[in-house]
Specification:
The complex is a heterodimer of chains A (389) and B (157). Chain A is of the alpha+beta class. Chain A is built from twelve helices and twelve strands. In chain A, strands 2-1-5-4-3 form a five-stranded antiparallel sheet, sandwiched between helices. A five-stranded mixed sheet of chain A has the order 7-9-10-12-11, covered by helices on one side. Chain A has a two-stranded antiparallel ribbon with strand order 6-8. In chain A, strand 9 and strand 10 form a beta hairpin. In chain A, helix 7 packs antiparallel against helix 8, helix 9 crosses helix 11 and helix 11 runs antiparallel to helix 12. Chain B has 157 residues and is of the alpha/beta class. Chain B has five helices and five strands. Chain B has a five-stranded parallel sheet, with helices on both faces. In chain B, strand 4, helix 4 and strand 5 form a beta-alpha-beta unit. The chains are: A alpha+beta (389), B alpha/beta (157). At the A-B interface, helix 7 of A face helix 1 and helix 5 of B.
C-alpha cells in the first residue's frame, strides 16, 4: 500500500521516487470516480481509463490501452460528434462541455451521453493529453422526452376540453333559448286554457329547460376559469366579502340568518374569481341551512406558514357526512335531490378550479346535521410563473 | 297599438329584420307583435341579401313598391356569407344608405362586438334577452323610443 503524500506540490515533482506515487494516486482517483473517464494522448490513443469506462462500455482494459479511440470495440467510437469534438473543436477551443452523443453501442444498447473534454499541455514529453469525462444521461433523457410528450398531450387535451366546453356551452345555449322562448310564448297563449296534466307538462318542460340553462352557463363559467381569467392583483378579501354580503342582503334578511365577517387578508388574486368563490361558498351556506335552527355563517381567516393565508366559511346548516368531504368538489356531484335543494353540482367544482388556478387548496369538513366548514388556503403573493392569464 | 313613423307626415315605416335563423326571425316577429308594434316587417337572411334589398337588386330587383326602403333595420351579427359587422360597415360608408337607423339585435354581449359595432356607426346595440318576455320588453322600449322620442330622417327622395 502506497502512502499518499499530503503535500501535493511534492507529489507532482519529477523526482524518481515520487512518480509512482503520483501515478498511483491518479489511478485511484480515476477508479473512484463513478462516471466513465478517459485519458487520451495527442494521437487520440487511450493512455488511461477508469473502471467505470471499461465496465460501462464493456471493453477490456488490457486490450484498449494504447489503441486509438476510434478503433475501440470494432470502431464503435468512430461517430461524427466524437470525431468532430476531438479533431476540431478541442483543437480550437481547448475544452468543450456537454457534447451530447446518442449512439447504439454493441452489447450495451442505446446510450445517450454528455461529454466534457479538455486539452492538458505541459506533459513531460512536451505533448498534450486529452481528458474526456462521460456522463450517461440515457435514462434521464428518456424520462425527459416522455415527460415532454406527456406534457404536450396534456396541454392538447386541456385545450380540446376548454374548446369543447366553451363551444358546446355557446352552441347549446342557442336551441335552449328557443325552447324557452317558444315555450314561454305557448304558456302565455295557452296557459289559461290548459288544464290539469297539460299545464303541468308544460311547466315541467319549462322548468327542465331553465335548469339546463343554469347548468350550461355554469359549465361555461367553469371552462372559462383558466381561459378568461383576469391578471392577479392585490385583492382585499374583506372588500370582496362585503360586496358578496350586500348581494345576499335580501336572502339573509328573509331567512333571518346572521353573517359575520372577520378581518380578512389581502392576497394577490383575480378579484372577479375571488368574488365568485365567496359567492359560491356563502351562497351554499345560505342554501343548505337547517329549517329549525337560526343560521349563522362566519367568514374567518388565519395566517398559514410559508406565505399563505386561509379563509374559512363556517355554517351551522345541514352539514354533510365526512365521507363526502372530497367528493363534493367533483363536477356534477350532488348530495341532495333536486326537490330538496336546487343546484347544478358545479358550484364547488368552480371553487376548486379557481383556488387551484391561484396555487391554493380548498378543503371541506362537516358533520351531518350540524354544519359545514370550507377552508381556502391561498398564497399571499403569486410568483410570476404561477400566473395564467 | 304603436306605429313607427317616418317623418312629420307620419308615413308608417317598414322594419327590416336581418337574421339568418328562422326561429329568431319568428321570435322577433312575435315579440314585436306582442309589444303591439304594427309596422310592416320584411326579412332578409344575411348581409348580402340585406344589400340586395336596400339596392333593390337580385331577387329584389323590380320590387319597387314591395321592397320599400326601411325606416329601421334590426341586424343580427353572426350570419353566414356576409355577417352583420361587414354589412354594417358597408351601409355606414354608403352615402345613400347611412341615414337608415340600424339596431344590432344579437345574442352577443362581448365587449369587442359592442365596441366594434359602435365604431362602425351602429345606432343602438341590444343583446337579445334570454327570455321571450325580456325580448317583448326590449321591443316595447325600442318601439316607444323610435316612435315617441326620435325624429327619423324624412323619406329619401
Amino acid at each position: 500500500m502506497t502512502t499518499v503524500n499530503p503535500q501535493r506540490s511534492e507529489a507532482v515533482t519529477d523526482t524518481p521516487e515520487s512518480v509512482p506515487v503520483a501515478e498511483q494516486l491518479l489511478r485511484d482517483i480515476l477508479d473512484t470516480v463513478r462516471e466513465p473517464l478517459l485519458v487520451l494522448d495527442h494521437d487520440l490513443r487511450v493512455m488511461q481509463a477508469n473502471r467505470a469506462f471499461f465496465s460501462t462500455f464493456r471493453l477490456d482494459a488490457a486490450d484498449s490501452i494504447g489503441r486509438e479511440i476510434f478503433t475501440l470495440g470494432d470502431g464503435q467510437w468512430d461517430v461524427a460528434p466524437i470525431r468532430s469534438m476531438l479533431r476540431e473543436r478541442l483543437v480550437d477551443e481547448r475544452h468543450v462541455s456537454d457534447v451530447e452523443v446518442d449512439h447504439v453501442f454493441q452489447g450495451v444498447g442505446r446510450t445517450i451521453m454528455l461529454l466534457n473534454a479538455r486539452l492538458v499541455s505541459g506533459n513531460p514529453g512536451g505533448h498534450h493529453v486529452i481528458l474526456v469525462a462521460i456522463e450517461d444521461v440515457t435514462e434521464r433523457r428518456i424520462i425527459e422526452r416522455r415527460l415532454a410528450a406527456q406534457r404536450q398531450e396534456l396541454l392538447r387535451s386541456n385545450d380540446a376540453l376548454h374548446e369543447f366546453a366553451s363551444v358546446a356551452s355557446h352552441d347549446l345555449q342557442e336551441p335552449l333559448r328557443k325552447i324557452l322562448s317558444f315555450g314561454e310564448r305557448l304558456n302565455t297563449s295557452l296557459g289559461a286554457s290548459l288544464t290539469g296534466n297539460d299545464k303541468q307538462y308544460l311547466d315541467r318542460m319549462l322548468n327542465a329547460a331553465t335548469r339546463m340553462r343554469a347548468l350550461i352557463s355554469n359549465l361555461l363559467a367553469y371552462s372559462q376559469i383558466t381561459t378568461r381569467g383576469q391578471r392577479f392583483a392585490r385583492t382585499d378579501l374583506a372588500v370582496v366579502a362585503k360586496e358578496v354580503a350586500a348581494e345576499f342582503e335580501t336572502a339573509i334578511a328573509e331567512s333571518g340568518a346572521q353573517l359575520e365577517i372577520d378581518i380578512l387578508p389581502t392576497v394577490e388574486a383575480d378579484a372577479v374569481q375571488m368574488r365568485q368563490l365567496l359567492e359560491n361558498l356563502i351562497g351554499n351556506a345560505l342554501k343548505y341551512r337547517r329549517k329549525d335552527v337560526a343560521l349563522v355563517v362566519r367568514v374567518t381567516s388565519a395566517a398559514v406558514d410559508g406565505g399563505y393565508s386561509s379563509i374559512t366559511v363556517t355554517d351551522n346548516g345541514i352539514g354533510f357526512s365526512e365521507v363526502h368531504a372530497e367528493k363534493i368538489f367533483r363536477m356534477f356531484e350532488r348530495l341532495h335531490g333536486r326537490a330538496q335543494y336546487e343546484g347544478s353540482g358545479i358550484g364547488l367544482a368552480i371553487c376548486r378550479k379557481i383556488v387551484e388556478r391561484h396555487g391554493g387548496t380548498i378543503a371541506a369538513t362537516g358533520t351531518n346535521g350540524q354544519g359545514a366548514s370550507f377552508t381556502v388556503t391561498l398564497p399571499v403573493t403569486q410568483s410570476a410563473t404561477g400566473q395564467m392569464s | 297599438m304603436m306605429m313607427m313613423m317616418q317623418d312629420r307626415h307620419k308615413i308608417p315605416i317598414t322594419i327590416l329584420i336581418c337574421d339568418d335563423d328562422e326561429d329568431d326571425r319568428l321570435l322577433t316577429q312575435q315579440a314585436l307583435q306582442d309589444a303591439h308594434i304594427a309596422n310592416a316587417l320584411r326579412f332578409v337572411e344575411n348581409g348580402e341579401q340585406l344589400l340586395d334589398y336596400l339596392h333593390q337588386r337580385g331577387e329584389f330587383a323590380g320590387e319597387h313598391g314591395t321592397a320599400p326602403r326601411p325606416g329601421l333595420i334590426l341586424l343580427d351579427l353572426n350570419m353566414p356569407t356576409m355577417d352583420g359587422r361587414e354589412v354594417l360597415k358597408i351601409i355606414k360608408q354608403d352615402p345613400t344608405l347611412l341615414d337608415i337607423p340600424i339596431v344590432v339585435l344579437s345574442t352577443s354581449s362581448l365587449d369587442e362586438d359592442i365596441i366594434r359595432s359602435y365604431q362602425l356607426g351602429v345606432n343602438s346595440f341590444i343583446t337579445k334577452p334570454v327570455t321571450f318576455s325580456g325580448l317583448v320588453e326590449a321591443m316595447n322600449v325600442l318601439g316607444r323610443y323610435w316612435l315617441e322620442i326620435v325624429e327619423l330622417p324624412p323619406a329619401a327622395a
